[in-house]
Design goal:
By secondary structure, the chain is mainly beta. The protein contains one helix and ten strands; from the N terminus they run βαβββββββββ. A five-stranded antiparallel sheet has the order 1-10-5-4-3, with helices on one face. Strands 2-7-8-9-6 form a five-stranded antiparallel sheet.
């Protein structure tokens, strides 16, 4: 499969990117907020849901929000840069159209809220592909995967 490159300009687009990033893993040290550039970025190892059941794999992927006003973190130890997080979803709540808050929801209850002037997100596979140890499994309370 070719490298995936997606852009989100509204909540529906963001939901599609969230689906592609479900079960991505990252280190706390892979999270960057650049207030002067008004950018929030993360580098993840996303599970490639399109690869099929027979050969599960992960891909190195970068994602960044533009037009960022601020970032809040809850339930994540930012001092432990090697701590691994599992991204479950990205949601968006509009506050004063088109402004709102995008929330990155992690397993274990952690979350990052990104206040944005508007939805402007880019996601792009950037590097190697490697075999995954297995396919992520969710309990019955989690949303179903295709």
């Amino acid at each position: 499969m070719d490298l995936l490159k997606l852009v989100a300009l509204d909540a529906e687009d963001l939901a599609i990117i969230s689906t592609h990033l479900q079960d991505a893993v990252l280190r706390v040290g892979d999270i960057v907020f650049l207030p002067k550039e008004r950018r929030f970025a993360i580098e993840v190892r996303r599970f490639d849901w399109e690869c099929g059941l027979d050969k599960p794999q992960r891909r190195l992927t970068c994602m960044h929000f533009e037009q960022v006003k601020g970032v809040r973190v809850r339930g994540i130890d930012q001092s432990n840069k090697d701590s691994v997080l599992n991204l479950l979803a990205i949601s968006f709540e509009e506050t004063d159209a088109p402004s709102g808050t995008a929330t990155l929801i992690f397993a274990e209850g952690g979350a990052i809220q990104v206040d944005i002037d508007c939805v402007e997100l880019q996601m792009m596979d950037v590097g190697p592909v490697w075999a995954a140890d297995g396919r992520p499994v969710h309990d019955d309370a989690s949303p179903e995967r295709p």
